[in-house]
Amino acid sequence: MRHRVAGVKLNRSPAHRRALFRNLVTALLQHESVRTTDAKAKELKRWGDRMITLGKQGTLHARRRAAALVHGRSIVKKLFDELAPRYESRQGGYTRVVKLGVRAGDAAPISVVELVDRPGTAPETGKKKPARRRDAGAKESAKKSGGAKASGGAKKKRAAAG
């Protein structure tokens, strides 16, 4: 039983897994967007949110904890000086995972993890798009093509004639 066991294994040793997520978190904080597989993206969201929370604390201890995970002093500086003030009023949910589809080579599901409220992106309005009706599109295309009944009738006529 895996009760209260956080995180995913991803078929890697603990050292490899830690190195992988350190690199991904560093890339996320540096570029504010990372493209990776779905499983890694879901776990990266946890790590990224935790780093921004450390940045919001702003203490020397938090800075040292962040520096222990993130590669590069410039990224730690960006985390505490740019990203933390940007998310000061937000109570969590600093990252978003958007599913992109499958990778061409091995059909692995690919997602992009990005920081919300990035400069250069459209601001969120908080309104949901209206739900699309899937039935209406199928009915319209069936009417235009003559529907399934017409093709079935044509087969019967050919069978009777031949």
Account of the 3D structure:
The chain has 162 residues and is α+β, with helices and mostly antiparallel strands. It is built from 6 helices and 3 strands; from the N terminus they run αβαααββαα. The protein has a 3-stranded antiparallel β-sheet. Strand 2 and strand 3 (109-115) form a beta hairpin. Helix 1 (14-31) crosses helix 2 (38-57), helix 2 (38-57) packs antiparallel against helix 3 (60-69) and helix 2 crosses helix 4. The relative contact order is 0.12. The model has no long low-confidence stretch (mean pLDDT 87).
Structure at a glance:
This protein is of the alpha+beta class and 162 residues long.
User: Reading side by side through the largest sheet, how are the strands ordered?
Assistant: 1-3-2
Low-confidence stretches: none
> Major sheet: size, sense and barrel closure?
3 strands, antiparallel
Portion in strands: 5-15%
Number of helices: 6
Could you say which structural class the secondary elements and strand pairing correspond to? alpha+beta
Q: Give the N-terminus to C-terminus distance in angstroms.
A: 66 Å
Instruction: Please give the share of residues in helix.
Output: 40-55%
Shape: extended
| Annotation, overall tally of beta strands | 3
